[in-house]
Amino acid sequence: MPSKPAPIKKAANKEPAKKEEKAAEPEPAPEAAPAEAAPAEAPAEGEAAPAEGEAAPAEAAPAEAPAAEEPKPPTPPPADAAAAPATEEAAPAADGEAPAADAEAAEAAEAAPEEPKAPTPPPPPPKEPTSAPVDLFIEDKNDTSVTIIWSQPETIGHTGLDGYTIEIAKDGTEDWKAVNEEPQKSCRYVIKNLTTGDRLKIRVVAVNAGGRSGPCALPEAVLVKEVADRPKVRMPRFLRQRYVANVGAKINLTIPFTGKPKPVVSWTKDGQPLDTKRVNIRSTDRDSIVFIRAAERDDSGVFEMCVKVDDFEDKAQFILQIVELPGAPASLKIVDTWGFNVALEWTPPKDNGNTEITGYSIQKADKKTGDWFTVLEHYHRLNATISDLIMGNTYNFRAFSENKCGISESAIVAKQEAKILKTGIDYKPPEYKERDSSEAPKFTTSLNDRATTVGYSTKLLCSVRGSPKPKVQWMKNQMIIGDDPKYRQICVQGICSLEIRKPGNFDGGVYSCKAKNDHGEATVSCKLEVKQPAVADADKK
Predict the structure, then answer these.
(1) Are 296 and 322 in contact (CB under 8 A)?
(2) Between 164 and 66, where is the model more confident?
């Protein structure tokens, strides 16, 4: 395809251009000419030069010029500078020197700067695996599984981390096998369905787009078995003291324990192996049960439980005491009889029911009736005195033993009888010397001054003591009142009162109370004021 015409700078003036074409010889194009301006060709003879401001048609661009470049709009140069190049370029055209024009066009094209291209992106960095995981250790294990945990690699890289592969191999071999089909995201994994007793090597590999990292392995092979946890017997609180039960009772005691793997449980009684015909033992992973269907006294003793895991063991014991009612006291005898009293003594029973004796009960029976009555109960001593017996009667006595199960079923009866004889007794009442309690009268409470209103009864009070009982007289203004019905005199247990019934204007004065007996007399006085009642102003008018 013909290349696009190169832009041609405008000629400043037509006339000077024609004169210069005829005069001067052609000069090479200046190297400093602008790259975007192509050399203009002079018009042939007989053709008119292009008018000012019009673009002259250009010939086809030389083959050396790049065809892909698009022409830029011409920048108009200054008028003086544009005229010279036009004159210089037109001269060779007139002489028919086409090769020189093509060379100048090629130089101009080479001098023109190329357009900048987009930068080429750098090649992607190579994909690299992560560093190996760290801090791999065993968190827990039992007889069929092992739990491991680890920390993520220190260097992960730009490709990230897809997960972890857990691999195992039997100790002594290098036959590593992955236990997880897909990469494990978590840093904790439980390796299950293992065979008890196997020794396994375990390692963890990190996986990403760059491949597998280096392995992080346990330093030693792992023996698949339960982690040994020291055994411990958890003896219940109620078994830490003596456990007491009655004969024939059902014994069902549960003693929990801890330990891993399952501890081996063993029992002894008084240091000897248990009789499994009498005592049933049933042990689980967490406790051991002692069961006796019907307890007997021979089942009493010190039971010891031992739990063992590997080289560790723990022991605990409890005391089982089977009790029953005690036997009767061994003996009972009458030591002495006097008056209405009998002295008894007895000895403890031979069979205490496998527990201590807490007391005794003593009963008596009149030989005439044969009825037994309890005279002592929960008595702790081995001797007693029975009193308040009836004269002339004959008595039998018996004793029972008592423990925490109750009172003995049988009793021991005294071989002798106690007879209370009738004897002549002269009763002489004790002689008492009477105490001299004679005392002169003395007022313990005196009279107080009082004020009352005409027509309103009032009362005067005082108290007096003395032995023999003193005689009391009331007086008004030193005159004995006597039996005046206006006054009421009362004296009960030393409390003396004088009631003045509806006193009038002349009942005021000094009242006195005199008490007198064989040892002396005493007097108290008070002043009584009788006031007029208050009258309203309307009543006065």
Answers:
(1) yes
(2) 164
Same domain, 392 and 480: no
Domain shared by 103 and 21, yes or no: yes
Surface-to-core class of residue 42, CB atoms within 10 Å of its CB (0-12 exposed, 13-18 middle, 19+ buried): buried
Mark whether 93 and 144 lie in a shared domain: no
Q: 431 lies in a domain?
A: no
| R_g of the chain, CA atoms, integer Å | 71
- 244: which residues sit within 8 A by CB, 6+ positions away? 321, 322, 323, 355, 404
pLDDT of residue 314 exceeding 90: yes
The mean per-residue pLDDT over the stretch 407-430 comes to 84
Render pLDDT for 207-216 as a digit per residue (tens, 0 to 9). 988 888 889 9
Determine the Cα–Cα distance for residues 474 and 469; give it in Å rounded to an integer: 16
Does 406 lie in the same domain as 346? Answer: yes
Arithmetic mean of pLDDT, 171-199: 89
Same domain? For 463 and 409 the reply is no
Mean pLDDT over each residue of the chain, to the nearest integer: 79
Residues constituting the chain: 541
pLDDT given for residue 20 in this prediction = 41
CB atoms within 10 A of CB 47: 9
Asked if 463 and 445 count as a contact pair (C-beta separation under 8 A), the reply is: yes
Give 115-168 pLDDT, tens digit per residue: 666 677 776 667 788 888 999 988 888 888 899 999 989 888 777 888 999 999
Helix residue spans in 49-119 (DSSP H): 79-95, 98-111
Q: Which of 284, 282, 279 is nearest to 250 (CA)?
A: 279
- The three-state DSSP-derived secondary structure of 196-225 is CCCEEEEEEEEEECCEECCCEECCCCEECC
CATH number of the domain residue 493 falls in:
2.60.40.10
Cis-peptide, bond into residue 468, ω within 30° of zero: yes
Q: How far apart are CA 299 and CA 326, in angstroms?
A: 17
Q: Measured at the alpha carbon of residue 200, what is the angle toward residues 207 and 143, in degrees to the nearest 5?
A: 115
The per-residue pLDDT for 105 is 55
For residue 404, give its domain range.
Answer: 329-419
Shared domain for 245 and 290, answered yes or no, is: yes
* pTM of the shown model: 0.41
Peptide bond into 119 cis (omega under 30): no
* Residue 260 in this model has a pLDDT that exceeds 70: yes
Domain count, the chain: 5
Q: How far is CA 242 from CA 103, 252, 300, 317, 323, in A?
A: 129, 15, 11, 10, 12
- Report DSSP state, residue 424: -
Strand spans (E) along 287-438:
287-292, 301-309, 312-323, 329-338, 341-349, 357-366, 372-379, 383-386, 394-403, 406-407, 412-413, 418-419
Q: Are 129 and 210 in contact (CB under 8 A)?
A: yes
Per-residue pLDDT band at 247 (split at 50, 70, 90)? very high
| Cβ burial, residue 106 (10 Å; 0-12/13-18/19+) | middle
